[in-house]
Amino acid sequence: MEHLRILITREQIAKKVGELGAQITRDFEGESVVLIGVLKGATIFLADLARQIKLDATFDFIAVSSYGNSREQSGEVKLMKDVDQSMEGKNIILVEDILDTGLTLTYLKKQMMVHKPKSLKIAALLDKVSRRKQPIYGDYVGFEIPDEFVVGYGLDFAERYRNLPDVCILESEEKSS
Ligand code: IMP
Ligand code: MG
């Protein structure tokens, strides 16, 4: 059996997403941005963040190979779906649910630079700083969290729990009773 413990409430998330949106709005005043969501975990964050950005904005989505049904990153990242439109000369904001080892975003950043954008920023709702294996930082980060496996607000475990409104720690019951 698995047990869920709330780590970040929907109210805390809403407040933070509002702040991040305001910051992006200020940083790109008078310009257009392309929000590129990393499927599928970033969809809910992107949907909320986008509505807090008061700029001319478009969406695109990319997909990478993921953890599968395990909690550990294989170390290998593969692009499964690229952007639909040209990114040349655009202000790209890569939107991700969580920065963990940093392998995914390091790979995606490199991949997106091939498209010659005007600028490239990273927005991540969560950041597990202590797990980092690559020197990569988010430009717009919601919350730094401890090294716990979390689900909800887009984040999954074996595709489940993405629809939870709060970010929760997924605990396995065997640990205690
Ligand atoms: P990274 O390449 O290790 O930075 O991993 C980033 C990806 O791992 C994220 O896009 C998530 O899909 C997944 N991930 C990392 N930590 C968690 C977690 O605690 N819960 C759910 N997914 C996670
Ligand atoms: Mg993901």
Give a nutshell description of this structure.
The chain is of the alpha/beta class.
Low-confidence stretches: none
Q: In whole angstroms, how far apart are the ends?
A: 10 Å
What is the percent of helical residues? 10-25%
**Residue share in β-strands:** 25-35%
Report the major sheet: 6 strands, mixed
The rough form would be described as: globular
Structural class: alpha/beta
Quote the average pLDDT. 93
How many helix segments? 3
What small molecules are bound in this structure? inosinic acid, magnesium ion
Oligomer description = single chain
Q: What is the H-and-E element order? A: EHEHEEEHEEEE
- The count of strands amounts to 9
Describe the protein.
By secondary structure, the chain is of the alpha/beta class. Helices cover 21% and strands 33% of the residues. It has three helices and nine strands, in the order E-H-E-H-E-E-E-H-E-E-E-E. It has helices at residues 10-27, 43-50, 103-113; strands spanning 2-8, 32-39, 56-64, 79-81, 91-99, 119-127, 140-144, 150-151, 167-172. The strands form two sheets. It has a six-stranded mixed β-sheet with strand order 4-3-2-5-6-7, with helices on both faces. A three-stranded antiparallel β-sheet has the order 1-9-8. Helix 2 links the parallel strand 2 and strand 3 (56-64). The longest helix has 18 residues, at 10-27. The radius of gyration is 16 Å and the shape is globular. The mean pLDDT is 93. The protein binds inosinic acid and magnesium ion (MG).
